[in-house]
Please model this.
Amino acid sequence: MSTAAIGGRVIDFRLGPWASFLVRRTGRLLVSLAALITAAFAMIHFVPGDPVRGALGLNATPEAVAARKEQLGLDESLISQYRHFLSGLFHGDLGESITARVPVSQMIGDRLPATMEIAIYAFVLVMLVAVPLGMAMAVWTRNGRRRRGELAFASSTGAIVAIPEFLLAVGLASVFGVSLGWFPVALREGPDSYVLPVLALAVTPIAALSRIVRVEALRVFETDYMRTARAKRLPGRLVYLRHALPNLLTSSLTLGGLLLSGLLAGTVLIENVFAWPGLGMTIVQAILQKDYPLVQGIVLVYGATALTINFMVDLAVAAADPQSTIRGS
Amino acid sequence: MKAVSTADPSAAEAASGPAGSTTSGSLELRNITVRYGRGRNASTAVDDVSLDVPAGSVVGLVGGSGSGKSTLGRAAVGLVSIDSGQVLVDGVDQGRKPGRRPIQLVFQDPFASLNPRLTIGGSVAEALPRADRATRATEVARYLDLVGIDPGVSTRLPHALSGGQRQRVALARALAARPAVLVADEVTSALDVSVQGAVLNLIRDLQRELGFAMLFISHNLAVVRYLADRIAVMDRGVLVECGPAAQVLENPEHDYTRALLSGVPTIGEPLPERAAVEPATEAETEATAR
Amino acid sequence: MSQTPRLRLALRTPLGIAAAAASTIIVLTAIFGPMLLGDTADRIDTDAIGRHSGTEHLFGTDALGRDIAARVVVATRLTLELTLFATLIAVVGGLVLGVLPAVLGRRAGRLITATVNLLVAFPGLLFVLFLAVIFGVGTFSAAFAIGLGAAPSTARLVQNLTASIAGTDYVAAARILGVNRFRIIVRHILPNIAEPVALFVSTTAAGILVAFSGLSFLGLGVQPPDYDWGRLLNEQLDRVMVDPMSAVGPGAAIVLTGITFGLIGEVVAKANAGRTAPQPEIATAETSAMTPAEESASGLLHIDHLQVRFPGHTAVHDVCLTVDEGEAVGIVGESGSGKSLTALAAAGLVPHPGRVSSRTMRFGDRDLNKQAPKGTSMAMVFQDPMASLNPALTVGRQLAEVAEVHHNAGRAAAVSRAVSRLGAVGIINPELRVRKRPHEFSGGMRQRVMIAMGLMGEPRLIIADEPTTALDVTVQAQVLALLRDVRTESGAALLLISHDIAVVSQVCDRVVVMYAGRIVEELPVGDLADGVAHPYSAALIGAVPSMTTDRDTPLATIPGRPPEPGEQSVGCPFAPRCARATDRCRTEEPVLEQIRPGRRVACWDPITTATHELEEAR
Model:
């Protein structure tokens, strides 16, 4: 807030719009991360009953339970537990899995790459297919042309969207895996094994995003600046690629970001269908076995990844469309 | 600087006469400043503006977009919170709190100012002071009649009416609150040319008949000239000139007023000489333009 | 209010019938399924374990020999109950969190909004897993978790909708009237957000069904001995790869029910949008009230009997218009008069679904009915310069591409031409400004950029559609003067469209007045002073005060309002509002006829000079 008047003109030392946007957005990321960490910490304390007894089973002796609690630090005061939890986090120590008795960080380190791989491959596939497909459909069916093509596109994508991902995964597995035998249906062994999980993850978002891109493109086609482009008698290629596409990217990016964090969630189901050795398989097992430190660690990783993706998407959108984003919020 | 409890408007109205009568009052705006945003994006929309609307008179407020004229009007009725200054009606400070005041506002766009899900009668009735239900229907009918709308439409929804008719309903709603002061914010600029005249005539007649004070805001100097006794000119948040209509129009003191006057298109009047170079004022405002 | 009949109408469409039928079937199955098939579904048959599908068991049997088909039917009730329960939680939570910021003070409201934004950032399933841990694995807690998981996004939608309604003028009006917050929410906000929220809820319900099935499928939802569709899938997971039929039953049930929820949403949406149902095309009788095409051969732009039709109405009726080389013609009219469409038709830019037809449409030596105007010979300037420039591209790019495309200019040459054109329209520092995007220019500057864009080539005609309406008065004069100067320098003709006859009179040589899609009068600007001949033109001039209007006399008024698009009229379209109308006006449409050289009027009883003098004498 420091300004100085020199020669009657006010000189502004404050942050530029970009920098202040960055500061605000980073602040939001940090607050969200803090909330996530606190929630993950609180999770264990929200659990009804005794988490350690729950994990060790009813037959465990009171001594065993107490020893385990001491080992996990659960006998200390809440505040000191929280302090320990935070300092552990900073050192990459997420505690030890109750059932596997292996450091949680080690388990996550083993499983994370498998999850990230299929999520990223699926995301790239979605963006490569859905944006051009939606755009092409929009050009093809603009101004009420080719009503039948539009209907076919709308109903087929609509049907795909209505099918839950895990059912789609089961269907893909039984058709391409079991009946046709083209691709393996379980485990992560060789490049072939990626095909079905990535497809299963990508098909629904492709249908959803290409529908939205088409509608957005049609909206852009009706804007005044597209009319200006046509008034300049530009060739269609320039009208659509130079004038329409950049204006589509903002909304596609925003939605794409949502999709990416959605894909991350989708991995939980898909991994369980394909016995994919990633975090999704692990978290479900951990919940069923009441292995709370492991659940805690995985929730932290998933949550932090989702928040980081949102953060990066916001930056990308701001870079693509500075005036509305930066001045807006 | 806290408001000394304003006279309760509904209490004041209880004593008022038949429909359409208003307690004429004066509006004083004292050193009003309104800022938008915080930090770097902060901008001063209205900068220390003082303006009087004497009882029974019409003050026209003109200015370009971004001059702060509408913000000042909204600040007067409490829709925009003021950063400093006072709004006085008949010498009584209206405070900073929102809520019913003896000032009413008629909005620019009659398609946006009526709730599409509320009947016309319902909209007008909302403005009536809390009287008993029996007289409510007849009061609504009287106010609609006053602005030349068939009271039979009071059970219809706004989409059944044209723009000009809706603006009349909006006027009826404002008058039904029996304001001492009326603020008219660009009331004709969203209307078709052929219905503007009728709405202006109506406002002029009602003002003369009922005698309320009026702050008439418009970008159109010719419209302001037609209605106003005094004319105030705003430019970029500052009140640059204010005086009797004839004086402002014939002997404008400020450059901006002169620019406004020369810009008004008049049939048969030639355009200013060569104007092909970017005017300095516009280049400067560019940075602040949205 | 008018919601119920529209809903009824929407239900009569094929989509509505399908939605109603499907939801009836699902509800009936949920009610009667467990009663009729409950025993079959629970009967353990050790002789028929893991049977494949066949005539006896449609989808086969499970590991305990229970009939899967019967179990799918019976599971309908629990699945539906849980879905609706979770949806209820999502909706109630979303509404409360969404409306609260509007009720509470600014600070508390911000806190809630921030919290909701924080929650929305997390993927829903993760949120659900987190809650599932806290509430423990179980049927009820899963429903609770899924409902809560969907609440933030519902809340965000409600918040956005509420904020947009809270910003409207009618809520502002209610606030000025002192209506309290609670009443504002109940009377003004909730009724106006109900429809989009209902639509969102139906999609959310479908999502919740899928999410719940997914959770049960993972074994984290419904716990045995209870079962829903997801649980049934989970039980078949081991054999589904080899016996896909065993998964078809519960899978199909989930998909079909999800589609039904979607259908219900579509029907609700259709009912809302149904206000403007497409009207049947009215066969317009070809009025062959032909005016002799006198000056057919001459002129730069020649339009003969132009019609622009939209489904349900004709927006432009038989307009004949000629613009000579270098001439400035102004078209004046109110919104809906067809003035802009006439200009857009000449440029071949009438928006979908408008259809243009004309006897002749010629520009220079090109027949516009067959070809587009040549390259840069026709320049356009539109009303809203911000919307008309592409926000994603620099101003220089948008100008330079004209030269690149039409004159095969290289990039550098094109940019330098752009710089020189921007300088020509009076933009200071054009070599710096070419690199800016449109939002860095002010309104008047953007309009100058649009004009410069037209000057990139050698225009023979500039069509300017309300070029100054969005600008301030002081800027308006500058832009008009620029248009005038550009015309003098380039020798191009100008077709200026405006609602303001004064604006047109300052720039143009000739004025064309349009009403209800027709030309009602055409006269040289110089004749305006002597008085116009058509009663509508006269009223148009008199209804708006000018700087010389007598303050003590009322303004001229035209009763009624302009005809709505699609409104059929017999006789003169202005007759219902015209004080001079006779019986003939009401039955027979007047023809645009020449009353003096250069003056045409479509009126059976035009105002003559004598009438003007008579009125002045009064």
Notes: The two ends of chain C are 52 Å apart (CA to CA). Residues 274-296 of chain C have pLDDT under 50 and may be disordered.
